[in-house]
Amino acid sequence: MDHRRSTRTAAAVAAGLLAATTALVGAGTAGADPRDDVKVPTAVGYGGAISTVDPEASRVGLDVLRKGGNAVDAAVAAAAALGVTEPYSAGVGGGGYFVYYDAASGEVHTIDGRETAPADMPRDAFIDPATGAPYPFTPDLVTSGVSVGTPGTPATWETALDEWGTYSLKKALKPATQLARRGFVVDRTFHDQTASNAERFAAFPATAELFLPGGEPPVVGSVFRNRDLAATYDLLAKHGTDAFYGGPLAADMVHAVQDPHTDPSTDLPVPPGYLALDDLAGYEALLQDPTVSDYRDYDVYGMAPSSSGGSTVGEALNILETFDLPGMDDAAYLHHYLEASALAFADRGAYVGDPAFVDVPLGTLLSDDFAAERACLLDPAAAAPKPVTPGDVDADDAACGETIAPADSDTENVSTTNLTVVDGDGNVVEYTLTIEQTGGSGMVVPGRGFLLNNELTDFSTVWRADDPNRIEPGKRPRSSMSPTIVLRDGEPVLALGSPGGSTIITTVLQTLTNHLDRGMPIGEALAAPRAAQRNTASVTAEPEFIEAYGPALKAYGHTLVPSGDQFTSAAEIGAATAVQIRDDGLLTAVSEPRRRGGGAAMVVEPARP
């Protein structure tokens, strides 16, 4: 590493130590005033760490760690708090993926808590019977009952606690329940997300009553309370998830989906959906093996299908491993990153779906031989025309360039949230959870205080027999969520993840290569300007990325276009969290300094400068 890099590293550590001290002061202040809105993006110290997008959620998780709870306990408690403060990104009405490193066994485990399609959902569910054409994706299909899948988040929490936690669900939910009752301070991000969804929210009286008091978004600096959600958490604390997947609460969800109650003045069609009591009663969060890819000196663990995160990140890393990324200049490195991502996305579209319904060739997709066949298509001097075609996983000793017909692109959206936790015993949790769109389906279950997801829009809109992501009853739609834990010599060194729809994959991939190959400190690697190549004609990029690298990448043939989310009005890609773990036990927790209003990193015992 050169002197300039060393200087930047020292500066980053110093900044992290200052941030850790600031975080400690902020935590003390929060004890006097229970509402904590101080966001510190980096914290350095020992004994445990947590990073989320929200200071209230991070504080909840930190308190659990300080009181002797483990990483799983803290993750569930923090996730429940995010259901309060980040209700447009996560909550009990959605699903997600949970990755856990167990320090005692040295093993990595995962939970697939993805939503499922109702048993009565037809293959033409996204086709407007009045026109015979697909519903417009936004806002018609998203803002509907037909987009709602069977939620998996409560089952994920209960499964994680039962398998690896020390807290009961009741104990884990208590801090978030208190938070929902006393309220949190509305920030600019919450206000803007509400305003961007005001038309959709106004279509549902229950949603408007909660999130549009007086017909307007909550004012920045005001206190937002959700007593209905507190009551829902109380119900789960008392009766467990049986009270969610059955009984009056389940009936309320089914009624909201099958017979949406809308404001008479709305122009949105709000197609009814198919969620039924039997779907809820039969839901199961799945314990399954992780994906693993050996990358240089590291083992990178992620989520297997139904998520495409582990396979696509892993394949792209395997492709990039054949090149000397550390020895390249910035433009050459980024060119290789973009091209490898496009190749992996092509294979994702062709082969990855719910393995209960699709024979996913996971071993081939993550093999070094297949990666070599794909890497030979990567021209170090020029971008390939997009979309590139998928590789042929059935070919014997395939020659370079042997491919099949391209697959369709997807419609997965950019919301979601992520958290990272490490405890004092070395257990690690990386957890990505979501309700899909910013604001999900837009439908609050009346009297229950939470939004229902629109995850079924992650299925392909038009049914095709050879599409691994086609609609099928009981199936889990393909996801891009990529919670990732990195080991070296069997010990965890890094955990990270991000929201962002299909840009989750590129965010995790870019952050990993920034850190592991380019030598960036983890805070810099996470904060660096981002670009996403998902096998499309143009590269989606943040404005800062275009300004810094646009001309150099144009010389390779890349076309860069600004990123943006119609539901948040933010030209951003992702909102990641991470914790780096050193051999001596020093933890560096990092979150976004700017994206989504910045995040909140905290440690149990801050290191002193």
UniProtKB/TrEMBL annotation:
MF (Gene Ontology): leukotriene C4 gamma-glutamyl transferase activity
Gene3D superfamilies according to UniProt: 1.10.246.130, 3.60.20.40
Signal peptide (UniProt feature, chain positions): 1-32
Enzyme nomenclature, EC number: 2.3.2.2, 3.4.19.13
Functional pathway: Sulfur metabolism; glutathione metabolism
Reactions listed under catalytic activity: an S-substituted glutathione + H2O = an S-substituted L-cysteinylglycine + L-glutamate; glutathione + H2O = L-cysteinylglycine + L-glutamate; an N-terminal (5-L-glutamyl)-[peptide] + an alpha-amino acid = 5-L-glutamyl amino acid + an N-terminal L-alpha-aminoacyl-[peptide]
Domain of life: Bacteria
InterPro entries: GGT_bact (IPR051792), GGT_lsub (IPR043138), GGT_peptidase (IPR000101), GGT_ssub_C (IPR043137), Ntn_hydrolases_N (IPR029055)
PTM annotation, UniProt: Cleaved by autocatalysis into a large and a small subunit.
Keywords on record: Acyltransferase, Glutathione biosynthesis, Hydrolase, Signal, Transferase, Zymogen
Quaternary structure, from the entry: This enzyme consists of two polypeptide chains, which are synthesized in precursor form from a single polypeptide.
UniProt similarity note: Belongs to the gamma-glutamyltransferase family.
Protein name according to UniProt: Glutathione hydrolase proenzyme
Provenance organism: Isoptericola peretonis
Phylogenetic classification of the source organism: Bacteria, Bacillati, Actinomycetota, Actinomycetes, Micrococcales
Gene, per the UniProt record: ggt
